[in-house]
Each structure stands twice: as C-alpha cells, then as structure tokens.
From TrEMBL:
Superkingdom per UniProt: Eukaryota
Protein name, per record: Endonuclease-reverse transcriptase
UniProt xrefs under Gene3D superfamilies: Endonuclease/exonuclease/phosphatase
InterPro entries assigned to the protein according to its UniProt record, in alphabetical order: Endo/exonu/phosph_ase_sf
Organism name: Meganyctiphanes norvegica (Northern krill)
Length: 143
C-alpha cells in the first residue's frame, strides 16, 4: 500500500510542470504588431522552465488585430475608438494549470487589474497607463 502511494506521488510530481523562475516583465510596446508579438512570444513565452507575465502598455489596439497563440492567455483593456492614439494594456502568459487569473472589472480603460493564483501564490497585478504629457489635460487624465 505504501509503495503504491509513493509511486503515485512520484508520477503526479512528474506530470506537474515546475518552473525555476517567475518574472513579471513591463514593456512599452508602442503599437503591438504581429511581428512584435512573435518576438515577445519567442523571448518570453516559449522558455520551458520559466514563467513570465508580460505586461504591455501602449498596445494601440482598438480592436482584435493580433493573432495570439492558443496556448497563450491574453487579458487586455482597450481604449474606446474615440481615445487618443496610444494606450491599451495587455498581460500575456503561457497556459498552465498552476496559473489562474481573472480580470477585475473596472470602468477605467487606463487600468488593467488581474488577480488569482500563480504557483499556489495569491497574486494581484495592477497595470496602469499614465499620460506622459505635462499639460493640464495630461495631469487631469492621470488624476
């Protein structure tokens, strides 16, 4: 009986993917294109023993234009079509049973908040887009 349990536990450990690193990356992508997405996927989302959350600002996406791989999870906040050119937020990570995030509802399009579990850690990530203008309008938007 004990031997069966040891074999079962060993098999379960082998079936679970483990990661050596967890990193959260922040990139101002200045307009996400299919080419830039392919580079991001290769650099951050394909490494076998690493888990990366890739946080993108200024995606400039106002509608779905980018084909995200089916094994990559995408969570985003897009500006309305009448907004300024920049903006748009996105968080990407590779699919894995040890990761479960949900988008926290928010009426503000300049804030993307997710919460959930990642490798048995409870995590909340808040990605904010700030207006870089020093004009009164830029300051007002940031408030």
């Amino acid at each position: 009986e004990d031997e069966k349990n040891k074999v079962k536990k060993t098999k379960e450990r082998k079936d679970k993917k483990t990661f050596e690193n967890l990193s959260i990356n922040l990139i101002n992508i200045n307009g996400l294109t299919q080419t830039k997405y392919a580079e991001l996927e290769e650099m951050f989302l394909r490494k076998e023993k690493e888990l990366n959350l890739v946080c993108l600002t200024e995606t400039h996406l106002k509608q779905d234009k980018i084909r995200i791989s089916k094994d990559i999870t995408e969570i985003n906040s897009k500006r309305d079509t009448d907004g300024r050119k920049g903006g748009g937020l996105m968080i990407l990570h590779k699919e894995n049973n040890s990761i479960k995030f949900e988008k926290v509802p928010n009426v503000e399009k300049e804030i993307l908040e997710i919460e959930g579990k990642c490798m048995d850690l409870k995590i909340r990530t808040i990605l904010v887009y700030f207006d870089a203008r020093t004009t009164p309008e830029g300051k007002r938007r940031n408030l």
